[in-house]
Write the structure tokens for this entry.
Amino acid sequence: MRFHTRKWVKPEDLNPNNTLFGGRLLQWIDEEAALYAIIQLDNRKIVTKYMSEIDFINAPKQGDIVEIGIIATKFGRTSLTLKCEVRDKINRLPILTIEKIVFVNLDENDQPTPHGKTEISFPVDRFGEE
């Protein structure tokens, strides 16, 4: 799993227990996963279809640095399934796991459309050095 995004837990991200608000973390995850799906499918028109059970393991506190890892686990005809892990950047303690996040590839009429992808690729593989 590759960890692409790091977030610093700031006061505005906290819940009444002074730990990271779960909704904020889910917002970060959905955005990171969407960006990953867009890059993998070469299409800016995708939607989140499904997110499986969310397992909160540890609660980050103000000042912690969390990192979000995303990996593609299945390429469907019109969909892409991802797995997500979030961990503390400094001590590598797990924070959250989501086994399944499904995105659907859309056409110009917002209808599901085949994407033709079958495996993970990286921009450097498609476009050369960045």
The mean pLDDT is 93. The helical segments are 22-41, 123-127.
